[in-house]
Write a structure and sequence with these properties.
The chain is built from six helices and six strands, in the order βααααββαβββα. The chain is globular, with a radius of gyration of 16 Å.
Length: about 180
């Protein structure tokens, strides 16, 4: 496992639902009860520490930011294209991806709830996914796979290969954009 995983998510939701999600606070780690079991399978995460950190991070204010403000912060990286968020109001598809994420407990427990909480606003019956993996070095090594359904997000063991192909294609284009914009 490298130190810099990537992630890709694609979610289908109406423009009204997407706008409501953007204005939300994104949620807290305690909104989901599956963190400890999942991180226990990932190696260097102590289950006893995880429960305490979930409680601690759930009590901390997330800076009072909306999802929209958080997304703007993520996407304003010095490296253009490193993190991208696009919403197509015609198709209702939101794509959010980053070539540089983190395996740190803090990042996982603070960032993932706001991504997973899109399920509360999802108003289409499709099952969508969030995939965390080392796209650049070990693209077949899947660190985290999350389903995003109406009102529910779950951690799962596999993802359709068509979604992996979509993630690879999207992140490949994103990588090219980033390299062209930042040749050094």
């Amino acid at each position: 496992m490298s130190d810099t995983p990537s992630f890709y998510m694609r979610v289908k939701l109406s423009p009204q639902a997407y706008a409501a999600y953007l204005e939300s606070d994104g949620g807290l780690p305690s909104d989901f009860d599956d963190w400890v079991g999942w991180l226990k399978t990932k190696g260097n995460y102590n289950p006893e520490d995880m429960q305490a950190l979930i409680a601690e991070y759930s009590e901390v204010e997330c800076g009072g930011q909306t999802v929209k403000e958080s997304l703007e912060g993520w996407c304003s990286s010095q490296c253009y294209g490193l993190t991208m968020s696009t919403y197509n109001s015609t198709t209702g598809i939101w794509q959010f991806s980053s070539l540089h994420f983190s395996y740190s407990v803090y990042t996982l427990l603070v960032s993932l709830p706001f991504l997973r909480n899109v399920c509360r606003y999802k108003d289409t019956p499709d099952t969508d996914y969030l995939l965390i993996y080392d796209f650049l070095n070990y693209p077949t090594d899947r660190f985290g796979i999350f389903t995003l359904e109406q009102g529910r997000s779950s951690i799962v063991e596999s993802v359709p290969e068509a979604f992996v192909a979509e993630a690879n294609a999207h992140l490949s284009k994103q990588y090219d954009i980033c390299i062209r914009a930042n040749p050094d």
